[in-house]
Amino acid sequence: METPLLLFPQLNISASKEKSYYKVMKSAIKEEPHKASKPGAKQKRNRLSLLLQKSEFHEGDHLGKPGNLTKAASVSPEEAMKWAESFDKLLSEKAGLDAFTKFLKTEFSEENIEFWIACEDYKKSKTSHELLPKAKSIYETFIQKDAPKEVNLDFQTKEATSQNIEQPIITTFDVAQNRVYRLMEQDSYPRFLRSDPYLNLVKGRNPSRPTLRRRSRSFTVNDFQGVRPDFTIW
Question: Which parts of the sequence belong to the RGS domain (predicted)?
Fold first, then answer.
């Protein structure tokens, strides 16, 4: 009768162990796919490094664009150097005029060169019928009070110009145009010659090609596992 009494405890212990082992294995099976779905720390760092590289590359696409005179970049250094001879020489060449216009836009004073160009076009009118609409357009755009592109003119010049608008002639804007010309020649022109975009043209550099920086790859602790230090460098 002693044998059955010894068998029952052994069966109970074995069953409890199997039951516990089953629970552990079941929970491990549930957790394993969950762990596999999450990227490791190394993967996260690599992705972050890649994103930073892409972001920096796209930022480089925009480097040098404002006021970089890209259209004038094909001008030879010799041609660009001639622009420094005189303000009239600069404006007499299309590439020079374009470059100077772009420069004034960076200083938010492009209305001066636009007014000067409008006056040049006005003086090319072939008939008297063309003068009146052009004169009114120039006056309303650049000269009258609170004009959308009002240029900096003294009171007397403005008054003299406004009195001739109803019956304009070829020379109606000559005084005003000359005032703006002198202002640009004495103020904006010297700054243009000292500007980086112009100096780059003179030196033969192409400002439309920005230098892109490369970010080094991010390293993790795992990358250095198994690497033995070399103390000979000390």
Answer: 86-202
